[in-house]
Structures are given as structure tokens and as C-alpha cells.
Design a protein that fits this description.
Shape: rod-shaped
Radius of gyration: 27 Å
Order of helices and strands: EEEEEEEE
Number of domains: 1
Helix content: under 10%
CATH class: Mainly Beta
Strand order of the largest sheet: 1-2-7-5-4
Length: 145
């Protein structure tokens, strides 16, 4: 009589792992003051920030490209290196300067995986005796996380 053979088995395990790194992405729209007539002018820009869930971040703005500009005295450059002063703020009342010193003059938050829109409020002060022409500056937005 033939015997019934039982099937033999052997088992093992393996781990499944993943690492999620903290990350943020950022983009911004242009800020256009329009035609400067010597009266105070205002404008806004929108910064879009998306960070991974629970990632703390700070959004800073640099001084721009004009020689001698600072985060409290920003300047656009125009014809023959003429300068037009302007300011960037973190609040709609335009009282909180926006710079690039984390937790001092920046805007902070905590990511949740979604895109957050942050408004930059700009002001061109009245009464600047400037040369006619086009003026511009470039601001670098930095997200520190």
C-alpha cells in the first residue's frame, strides 16, 4: 500500500518600510504697483506654500537686487540707475515689515500637505521725486523648514 506524502512548508517574513522626508514647495505671483503718480500706491502678491504634514516652516523675503537695499528699505531700479522706494509687509494694515530673519519678520506655519496662500502687501510711499521710466526689482522668497 502506497503512503500519502504530506507537503512540506517553510515560511519567512520581510519588513516593509518607507521614509517620508519633510519638504516644502513655494511659488509666487508678481506684484505690480501700476503707474506711479507721486501719490501712495499699494499692491499685493500671493505666495503659495505646500509643506508635508506637521512640517513647521518660515517664509522670508530678501532685500531685492538694488545696491544698498535692505529688507526695511527696498528699492526698484529704473532709468540711469534711478531708485524708487517701496516696502513689503506681512499684514493688511501694512505695519509689519516682511524680511528674512526666521521667527522675527517672517510668516510661519505648519504644513498639512495642502497649499496655503499667503498675501504680501506692498506700498509705494507718496512724494518720491523720481525719473520717469520703468522700475523693477526681484525678490527671492525662501521657505525654511
Amino acid at each position: 500500500m502506497a503512503g500519502t506524502a504530506e507537503a512540506a512548508t517553510s515560511t519567512s517574513t520581510f519588513n516593509v518600510t518607507a521614509t517620508v522626508q519633510a519638504t516644502c514647495t513655494v511659488s509666487a505671483t508678481n506684484l505690480a504697483f501700476g503707474v506711479y503718480t507721486g501719490a501712495q500706491a499699494t499692491g499685493t502678491s500671493a505666495i503659495s506654500v505646500a509643506c508635508t504634514n506637521t512640517t513647521a516652516y518660515q517664509v522670508g523675503l530678501n532685500a531685492g537686487t538694488a545696491s544698498g537695499a535692505t529688507v526695511t528699505t527696498r528699492q526698484m531700479t529704473g532709468p540711469s540707475s534711478a531708485l524708487l522706494n517701496y516696502a513689503l509687509y506681512r499684514d493688511a494694515a501694512r505695519t509689519q515689515n516682511w524680511g528674512n530673519t526666521a521667527s522675527t519678520d517672517t510668516v510661519g506655519g505648519t504644513g498639512d500637505g495642502n497649499t496655503r496662500s499667503i498675501t504680501v502687501y506692498g506700498t509705494l510711499p507718496a512724494g518720491q521725486p523720481v525719473t520717469p521710466g520703468s522700475y523693477s526689482d526681484t525678490i527671492v522668497v525662501t521657505v525654511t523648514y
